[in-house]
Write a structure and sequence with these properties.
The protein has 2 helices and no strands. It has 90 residues and is mainly α. It has one domain.
């Protein structure tokens, strides 16, 4: 009788262990999917920030080129004169 109880207990424990293993595998799958989604969102945000910085850099380069072109003609644009005044007056 005692061995029958022990065998039944062992069988129930084995079933519970298998159920928990399956549940763990499912949770790991869900966790992996969530991790992938979070990484994709982060990549998207970083890509957007890179695009904004690239546009900003291009605008700055264009502005610098305009200022340098104005300087080459011995005319200093107002904005450059203001910046120069601030630097010299510092």
């Amino acid at each position: 009788m005692r061995s029958r109880k022990g065998a039944e207990t062992q069988r129930l424990q084995d079933q519970e262990i298998n159920r928990l293993k399956q549940e763990l595998a499912q949770l790991q799958g869900v966790n992996g999917k969530l991790h992938s989604e979070l990484l994709q969102e982060r990549i998207t945000r970083i890509d957007f920030q890179v695009q904004l910085l690239t546009q900003w850099r291009q605008r700055c380069q264009e502005e610098l080129n305009r200022m340098l072109a104005g300087q080459g003609q011995n005319t200093v644009p107002e904005e450059l004169a203001q910046v120069s005044g601030r630097v010299e007056g510092s």
